[in-house]
Design brief:
Blueprint lengths: L1 H44 L12 H4 L4
Length: 65
Amino acid sequence: MLERIAARRADLDLLEEQLVKQLAEVRVERDELVVAERVVQRISEQGFGEYLSPAPPPEEAQGGP
């Protein structure tokens, strides 16, 4: 019985490490999105909204099909 408890604790410790790492990655991405939102908002406020449109595919930009 003690071996099963120890094995489960080891499994949970590993899971905890993975979740902590994943949470850190999520927080970093969320912070990056906050910065991106601020940039987009400032660009819009300054009247450069046309630069927020997605660029045309490379073929169209080069006069392709």
